[in-house]
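Re: beginner question about structure tokens

> Can someone show what the tokenized structure looks like for a real chain? I only ever see the sequence side.

Sure, here's an example I had lying around. Input first:
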Amino acid sequence: MVPPIPGLDEAPMVTSETVWDLVELPQRLVVIGGGPIACELGQAFARLGSAVVMLVRSEILPKEDRDAAAIVRASLQEDGVEIVEGVEAESVSTSHDDGGSNDDGHSRSTIHTGDGRAFDADVILVAVGRKARTEGLGLEHVRVEYDDAGHVLVDAGMRTSNPRIWAAGDVTPHPDFTHLAGVYASTAASNAVLGVHRSVSTIVPRVTFTSPEVAAVGLTKADGKDQTTSTIQHAHTDRAITEEQTSGFTRLVIGKGGRILGGTIVGPRAGESLAELTLAVHQKLTTRDLAGVTHPYPTYNDALWNAAIADARTALDSPLVRTAMTGLVKFNRWRNRRS
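And the corresponding structure tokens:
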């Protein structure tokens, strides 16, 4: 998606699809956006040596746990990225003559924000999301319904309003993830070709591949009165301590009866650790289920295991359970004496 910013079409502009065509490292890169792609590529170019500025309309990683976003923000800043939040790019001016070029003789652009500031760039990376490219397909002529943004509307089996047409991927209103597109395309193909009635899962894991990674699935904060969280800081996880990567954490969101509703993991290889959490949410497991599984040591998954153990232990602290445990101990002692 390229926003209608005056002057942007005349500037040296790339997106997540065309950034790979760059043959030279830009000295100054301005990133418009603050989502996963903006953070990932912004950090990458900063580590390659570009002076990177991120212009973010609200705040970085707005869909993620705020503690997780804070860690990523600090990491980006440590890598030299200048993050300007709460601003919008209003216009872009580009100089093509020698007098307005940079030291390499290339064109220079200036991004003007709504608060009166200006930021120079050799390349502008636009990372404000994606949109469905369905205009001109004639969907209205084949009775395929779509929303105002052009997304093709589908049911749980990826079938459109035309019973002979299925759709999957970014063209639908579902989240724009590669792994999701693959799974949903498989569902659509199976249902369309084999005539089965598979439904897609609503449990969708996501990973932002910054350093550290941010991985999340299901609920990322406790919203209801019967919901709590259990958090293990990686400063208390031996693998993280050994590798000196202790800024992250693992947080579970837990519902009634100890059921795991979701969570967030921040740290190296968080995406790998998320797989177990995703399975737990999908299978409606409880923290007792997860705590009862033996985990290898030392791994980053220790934090996930310990977060489950910490919650499971809280049940043992209730007066009713303590009374029952005391009674059971006394009964076993009495029985042992009799035998």
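Each token stands for a local structural state, so reading them left to right follows the chain. The chain has a mean pLDDT of 92.
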